[in-house]
Amino acid sequence: MKKHVVFDFGGVVFQWRPKELLKRTLPHRAVDEAAAQQLVADFFQNYEGDWGRFDRGTIEVPELAPLIAERLGFELGEVQAVIDAVPGELEAQKETVELLHRLHENGHRLYFLSNMPEPYAVHLESTHEFFSRFTDGVFSSRVKLIKPEPEIFELATKRFGIEPSQTVFIDDVAKNVEIARAHGWHAIQFITAAQVEADLEAIG
Asked: What is the CATH number of domain 4-15+91-203?
């Protein structure tokens, strides 16, 4: 198995179900499945637009919330409720955490590469002991770059001091997996921790 394993966070190490988040937080707007799905698209804009700037670290909550409220025609309190609820949604996924521990114990060096706004990055770092398993990591908001931009993979390669051919990247988003491969990394699209572990063995 390759020496270096780089993990995405949202949807891989941590649960990320934006539709369920919005159904809980704004039930009066997510009145059925179709409305909830549309609300995800409208609120997060595929993690581009204003939320993309939040991921990139070029906008903070006091500016973000009014922008989303104005764009969607929502009350400011509604938008703030969603922003405040995100940390509660980012629960560690037990099976992935167990895989992290096994890989670490077997001598693999672990890293993370995550699109993550600064407030949520601080929350995750301060609430999960398994961060000690990671040799290093990159949060998008701290380097002002986001996946799938090639530059963030270039930065991570240099910062981690890793050889791309000895590196495997794990992400739930197909585009990010494609860019990692284009950068010379091996890459696996995450579906389940068990699937990833089998794919890691297959890569060798």
From this structure: 3.40.50.1000
